[in-house]
Amino acid sequence: MEALDADKINIFVPADHRAPAEWVLKWLFTEILHLEVILLAHAGEHIEIRLQGKVLSIACDFFRLNKPSWLQPGSLVVEPREDWMDVDRTLAADLTARSIPVLWGRQGFLQTVQGNGQLHLDVIGSIFFMLSRYEELVKASRDQNDRFPAAASLAVERGFLYRPIVDEYIEILWSAMVKVWPQLTRPPTAGAMVVTCDVDEPYERWISSPWLLAQGLAGALLRRRSVGCASRRLKNAWCSRRGRFQFDPKWNFAWYMSALESHGHRGIFYFIPTSGRTQFDCTYSLTERRMQALLKSLSDRGHQIGMHGSYTTYRNAALIERERRSLINACRSAGAAAAVSGNRQHYLRWDAGQTADHLEHAGFTYDSSGGYPDNPGFRYGTTRTFPMWSWIRHAPLKLRQHPLILMEGSVISYLKLGYSAEAFELMRTLKRAALKYGDFTMLWHNSHLSTPEDVGLFSDILAA
Ligand SMILES: [Zn+2]
Known about the structure:
By secondary structure, the protein is of the alpha/beta class. About 35% of the residues lie in helices and about 15% in strands.
C-alpha cells in the first residue's frame, strides 16, 4: 500500500501515464539528483512534487495531448512550433544558452506567495519523448540503409540537435525545485571522454584475395591515379601475407592504444563477429591469428572489447545472440577478457521499436549506437547513460544506452566539413556541451586514421 511520507519527496503522477512518467522520474531523481522519492499516482493533470507542505506542479502535456492517437502514424502534436523559453527571466538554470526550445507545455515558471511553484514547461513528457525515441516510431522517414535520418527529427527541425536538451531540461527542473526548496542539494556532475572504435576494416581488404587485390590496384591507378598508392598496396599485400603489417595504414592499433593511453584513457573497440554476411559487413574473421593477437593485446593493455552487431542484426534477435557467443568464444581462445557487455550497431542501424529488447535478451548490459550517422549531436537529447525504454513491453529495460555524441565521418563526410577549422570547432562544441553534464562518447574508426589530416584532427579533439 502506497503511503504519503511527509519527510520524503512525494511525486504524484497522472494515473493514465504512470509507467512512462515513472521511468523518467526514477532515472532523474535516483541517478542524477540522488534524491530519494516516493512515486504515487493521482487523478490530476499535472505532475506534482510535494515536500514539507510545499508543491511544485509541472505541466504534463505530451502524454495528455498525444494520448488519443498514441503511437499512431503522424500523431506528433507539437504546438506552438516556434516557442522558445527565455529561462534566465524566471530561473537560474545552468544551460548551454540562455533560451531553449519548448517541446511540450509552454514557457514560464510562477511562484505563489505561499512559496509553491508552477513550471509550465513539460519537462518529464519532453524527456520521455527524447529518450524513448517516440518520433522514430510514428514517423516513416528512413534512408537507403533503413535508418531514421537526423533530418527527419524534431531536433533538426527546431535546431537543437547540438544541445543536450534533456540535460538542460533537468537543469530547469532543478532550478525550479531550488526556488521552492532552497535547502535541497545534489552531487556535482562528473563526465569523462570515452573514445570508441568500430573495427570495420582492421586491415586493408585488398590483401584478402587476389581478386580484391586486383580491385585495390585498379582503384589506385584508375580512380586515384596514383602509382605510389598502387605500389604501397601491393607491398602491403606481399608483406602482410608474411606476417609483416607495418605497411598497412589501417592496422594502426598499437599507435591508437598508445595515443589514448598518453591521455590517460582506455578505449572501447567494437568488433563484427561474423564476416561477409552482406556486402556491408566485413572481410575479417576473429579466428585469424593476427585478430586473435589484437584481441589479446587490447585486453592486456586494459582496453575494452565490445560487439559491433553486423548489418542485419538490428531486427534479428537470434543473430545478435549468435554473434555475441562467437565474440565471447573468440576472446576466450585469444586469452582476452570475454565479458562482452557492450554493443554498437554497424552503420548505426537501429529500430527504436525492438533493437534494444533483442540486445538485452542476448545478455548485453549496454548499447552505444545512440547517434545519427548523418549528423553528430544528441539523438537522445542527453549525454548521460540511461536505462532504455522497451516499446514491446511498454516498460523500462535493464539495457543502458551510452549515447554516441560524435562520429568522425558525420562531420568530415556527411556534413562535408572535411578537416576544416569549422569541423574542429563543431567537434569541440559538442565535446564541451557533453562534458558539462556527462560523458562525451566519440567514435573514431581505425580506418579513418590513414592520413596526416585524420591523425591531426583526431589528436586535436582528444586534446581539446
Ligand atoms: Zn561499422
